[in-house]
TrEMBL record:
All copies of domain NAD-dependent epimerase/dehydratase, residue ranges: 4-213
Species of origin: Imperialibacter roseus
Highest taxon of the lineage: Bacteria
A Pfam match: Epimerase
Official protein name in the record: NAD-dependent epimerase/dehydratase family protein
Length: 311
């Protein structure tokens, strides 16, 4: 049995699809799980409860942690560290392997210009401090040989689930409504974006490769990092819209937080848009001989899929 904790989100849904290449025994765990594949086993659970975590993990060969909590620092502080401790304890109890789908928040601004697996944990934000605490728990479990684990990191990602991607919210959603696209801080800075299907496929590949465990991996991402302006132009060209873009300065993001809570939460992460942000997945690409989907193809597929959903 391979189990996804936090199923049905942008990553969990795509991961469930990808896992069918390796197993028919897939357990989807969330408060209200929905079947992705015909034979998926649905397991409702409240993952903030230790007993629920243990029940969800029991009988699993591999556990994928892809939970996405509300984008609120108070929530993150309250739920992330206990969840990771419970998941690691459950995996140790039942002899399960762990694949943790992570972001790069634990990596500070002095390293985002070239993000590799060797970048030190150096958070420069409150959310980054929470992710660093969680990463250290996983790394400690690796070092002590308690739980075979993988930290699978993704850059900012995008998919047809628009509400979980800032690229889709700022660019696609505005363009489809006939408005100017928006970008944060510096539209001339490069910013890597990971395509969800690639991230999910990569996560499944890692979880089913024994020699990949007890390492950090950057998930496959097109090495051709685009600037904010180039992302807007790419979407606009494919969608057939204007490529005009409004750049929101750091102080503007903070000011919008008065009316839009998510903007208040995003303000501390504005450093990721102020300068180049390059996510390097060369280690994964070389090990698996994998070529990530190009940015152009990824955007084209996403826009086409959204048209089909609406149609």
């Amino acid at each position: 049995m391979q189990t996804i904790l936090g199923a049905n989100g942008a990553i969990g849904t795509e991961l469930a699809k990808s896992l069918t290449s390796y197993t028919k025994d897939i357990r989807l765990v969330s408060r209200n799980p929905k079947r992705v594949n015909e034979k998926d086993v649905l397991h409702p659970a409240d993952l903030t409860r230790r007993d629920d975590v243990f029940e969800a993990v029991k009988g699993s060969e591999v556990v994928y942690l892809t939970v996405g909590f509300n984008y609120d620092i108070k929530v993150w502080k309250a739920v992330w560290p206990p969840l990771m401790k419970n998941v690691l304890d459950a995996c140790e109890e039942y002899g399960s392997k762990l694949v943790f789908f992570d972001n790069i928040y634990a990596i500070g601004k002095e390293h985002i210009h070239h993000i590799t697996e060797d970048c030190p944990i150096s958070p420069c934000s409150k959310k980054g401090e929470v992710r660093a605490e969680v990463d250290r728990l996983v790394l400690a479990a690796m070092d002590k040989g308690k739980v075979p684990s993988i930290i699978a990191r993704s850059g900012d990602f995008f998919s047809t689930m628009r509400g979980t991607s800032m690229l889709m919210i700022m660019v696609y959603d505005n363009l489809i409504r006939g408005k100017k696209a928006q970008w944060f801080c510096n539209a001339k800075a490069k910013h890597s974006m990971t395509y969800c299907p690639d991230a999910a496929k990569g996560t499944a590949m890692l979880g089913n490769t024994p020699t990949a465990f007890n390492q950090i991996w950057n998930l496959p991402t097109d090495k051709n990092a685009l600037t904010g302006e180039e992302w807007v132009k790419l979407f606009a060209t494919i969608m057939g819209t204007s490529d005009k873009c409004q750049v929101l300065p750091g102080w503007g993001i903070k000011a919008l937080g008065i009316f839009m809570p998510i903007m208040k939460e995003l303000h501390e992460m504005s450093y990721q848009f102020a300068s180049d942000y390059f996510f390097d997945s060369a280690k994964f690409e070389k090990f698996f001989n994998y070529v990530p989907t190009s940015n152009e193809d990824a955007v084209r597929e996403t826009v086409a899929a959204l048209k089909n959903i609406k149609g």
